Amino acid sequence: IQPSTTSNDGPTVNDLEKYIAWHANSPRVESTPAQLSPPSPSTESEHIIPIPKDDKDNDVNQPALEIATAKIQKARDEYMQRKQSEEGTGASATASDLPISDSSNGQTMLTFLEIKPYEAGLNMNKLGELLTTMQWNHPDGGPIHPRWQPANREQDPHSLVEVVPIGFGISKIRLCCIIGSDDIDDLTDAIDEWEGDGDTFEGVQSVDVDWDHTVPVMDASSLPIRR
User: Fold this and answer.
1) Which whole number is the average pLDDT over 100-121?
2) Which residues constitute the domain of residue 127?
3) Which three-class secondary structure state does DSSP give residue 40?
4) Which among 38, 70, 187, 215 has most CB atoms closer than 10 A?
């Protein structure tokens, strides 16, 4: 646009009209936002943490009951082999020959008992032997029939009594038996209420069931053979 030279008073109306017309017809540059490039394909596999497959040989992935039963079966088989070797003959009782339990009261259980004495310095092995040879009865006078088993097969497969030190010269005894689940409370109560032999022992302080190791016996094949 050429400035007007006919007047020194500034642009005229004609000049303004020309400027407006020029501005309206001038090409415009549209400023558009830059387009974002699409994201690169995601490599999801790089961000996924693989989940390990279950290890079928790992005890953690197996039911606790199956693990306990397998251990009992293993101990039973080892004892059968030792028994056959000692007797020098191949004859032995088969699983079907073994009664599941002498008691039919409830489900058959492999039960562990922990028994504490009143004082230190007692012959705990003798106490355990006494408890496993006594006849225990229900409150109504009926007999309880626990089948006593070795308390610690790995340490001594021929002993029904395991002596476990507690401290300060005091030990507790650990016993194991096969018994009906409905008879467990009556057995522990009977031992707990026992008043002693009138000579060396004055009864026991407490009787507890080790429920962490007490398991159901599913069938005769899972029973450890009694010594």
Assistant:
1) 79
2) 66-89+102-222
3) coil
4) 187
* Token digits of residue 30: 């549209």
CB-based burial of residue 217 (10 Å sphere; 0-12 exposed, 13-18 middle, 19+ buried)?
buried
Mean pLDDT of 137-164: 92
pLDDT at residue 221 in the model? 47
Q: Are 176 and 112 in contact (CB under 8 A)?
A: yes
Q: Total structural domains in the chain?
A: 1
Is the residue at 46 inside a domain? no
Q: What is the CATH number of the domain that holds 152?
A: 3.30.70.60
Instruction: Examine residue 197 and state whether it is found in any structural domain, yes or no.
Output: yes
Q: Is residue 55 part of a domain?
A: no
Helix (H) or strand (E) holding 14: helix 13-25
**Helix boundaries (H) for 54-138:** 64-87, 124-133
Q: Stretch 34-50: mean pLDDT, rounded?
A: 51
Q: d(Cα 220, Cα 224) in Å, to the nearest integer?
A: 9
